[in-house]
Request: fold
Amino acid sequence: MVLGILTSIAACPAIIGTTEAVRSGQKQNAREKHRSRKANLSVSCSDPSRKARDIHGGSVVLKDKKLYVTTVNPKSKFPEDFENDADRIQQYGHIFAGYFFPYPDSKWGRRGEGYVSTIADDPPQLNWIYVDKDTYEVKYGLRVETEGHLVGPWNVTPIDRRLTFDGWEGFTVVEEGEGVWALYFDVDDDGLEEKIPADQRIMEVELTRKELRMAKGDPIM
Reply:
């Protein structure tokens, strides 16, 4: 009897350890569920320039194979100078709605995954998000269009879920026209010194995933 009690006591740490490991795994899985949910990208910009008002608090949109930042929501009520909502979307693009997805033949492990976004609502279509290897512009396209470019790994910071690429946050915006801000990733961490003219305005930004609002009847991922 005494031996049985001693054996049980000795086994307790192992049992507790196994239980904690299972619970930890369950919590980890719960935390990772957000990765498969569609999310918009909200933009923060702490640049002291007045130009920061063009993008701070705005969203990422897709247009003409590139990603842009705007404070105008393509789905909001359109002004009188647009005849219909289709004209507004044509002007400002399709609002980003993306999630993480394994990129074929990638070997990133826990560093991250590929990243996809819808490019249209009707019919629904998905494209890969990638960084152009030559210009460092953030773009979207079919698998064949991403080949040879920088496709990942994409990930998020542990707490705030700010977007990262290749393990860090190097997102910037470049003004390509009055109030037109294209999204770039500063791969070399040099302010895009070799990629854009010295007189072109550039600002650092942070991108935070904001999950789409769940409607009644939506499955809980």
